[in-house]
């Protein structure tokens, strides 16, 4: 059974939940990590889930904003430390666009211990992927795509499994028509929804280049996605977010809606 394990659901400045990131647990037990939040809180989130670093040899980083990339440095440090202690076999691969790659290389060189940084480039490999480029991984085919952000270069991705399942991560900004082929008729569509439509004047999502639940749900209906996961939200309504966001989404979208809390596990089938 494939599972989506949500590590965090909040936007950059969230303090009541962790920043948005997650990992997939696949049938063979391997793990695929996406983003890592804004600090070493990622280590706690992974620990709580029972995350086995040895089973995670592939990771994707969408963009270089603090709430997505800084935690990656901690993941790299953790993996390097495990390697140095003989507790991690094989290589750890990170996939990202060129800007993020340069950021990670510079930050690891500046912040890691020499023996940990020595692993970068030999055992910890940071791969640049380009818009539309596909990478064949053991469990699926990953195709990266540029979401054409107006703020900072950002990539999403589409995972195509051998059994036909299509899993698409749109990043944390509104959908761009440039990426229709990767998102249309997805079995699972992961999209940001900063707040409810009724609260748009309070949270100003459009000023931040984000969507409301209404727009994200209309998009999922337009793209004929089967399942919609909404995340990267404000953190002022956590007690009622799951119910209220889902209720709004169902007004515009006919498929299955998931509004996870931090550490929720969603079975993908």
From TrEMBL:
<dbReference type="InterPro" id="IPR036866">
    <property type="entry name" value="RibonucZ/Hydroxyglut_hydro"/>
</dbReference>
<keyword id="KW-0540">Nuclease</keyword>
<feature type="domain" description="Metallo-beta-lactamase">
    <location>
        <begin position="18"/>
        <end position="210"/>
    </location>
</feature>
<dbReference type="GO" id="GO:0042781">
    <property type="term" value="F:3'-tRNA processing endoribonuclease activity"/>
</dbReference>
<keyword id="KW-0255">Endonuclease</keyword>
<protein>
    <submittedName>
        <fullName>MBL fold metallo-hydrolase</fullName>
    </submittedName>
</protein>
<dbReference type="InterPro" id="IPR001279">
    <property type="entry name" value="Metallo-B-lactamas"/>
</dbReference>
<dbReference type="Pfam" id="PF23023">
    <property type="entry name" value="Anti-Pycsar_Apyc1"/>
</dbReference>
<keyword id="KW-0378">Hydrolase</keyword>
């Amino acid at each position: 059974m494939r599972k989506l394990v949500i590590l965090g659901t909040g936007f950059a400045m969230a303090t009541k939940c962790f920043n948005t990131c997650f990992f997939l647990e696949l049938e063979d037990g391997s793990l695929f990590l996406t983003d890592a939040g804004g600090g070493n809180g990622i280590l706690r989130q992974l620990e709580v889930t029972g995350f086995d670093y040895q089973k995670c040899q592939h990771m994707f980083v969408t963009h270089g904003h603090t709430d997505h990339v800084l935690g990656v440095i901690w993941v790299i440090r953790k993996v390097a430390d495990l390697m140095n202690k003989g507790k991690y076999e094989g290589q750890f691969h990170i996939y990202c666009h060129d800007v993020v790659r340069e950021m990670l290389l510079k930050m690891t060189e500046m912040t890691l211990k020499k023996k940990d940084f020595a692993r970068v480039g030999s055992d910890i490999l940071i791969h640049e992927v380009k818009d539309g480029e596909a990478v064949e991984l053991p469990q699926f085919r990953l195709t990266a795509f540029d979401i054409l952000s107006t703020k900072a270069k950002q990539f999403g991705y589409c995972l195509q499994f051998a059994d036909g399942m299509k899993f698409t991560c749109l990043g944390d900004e509104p959908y761009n028509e440039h990426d229709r082929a990767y998102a249309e008729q997805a079995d699972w569509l992961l999209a940001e929804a900063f707040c409810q439509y009724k609260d748009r004047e309070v949270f100003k999502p459009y000023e931040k280049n984000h969507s409301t639940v209404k727009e994200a749900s209309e998009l999922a209906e337009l793209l004929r996605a089967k399942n919609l996961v909404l995340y990267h939200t404000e953190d002022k309504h956590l007690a009622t977010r799951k119910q209220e966001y889902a209720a709004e989404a169902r007004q515009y979208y006919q498929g299955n809606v998931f509004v996870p809390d931090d550490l929720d596990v969603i079975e993908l089938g």
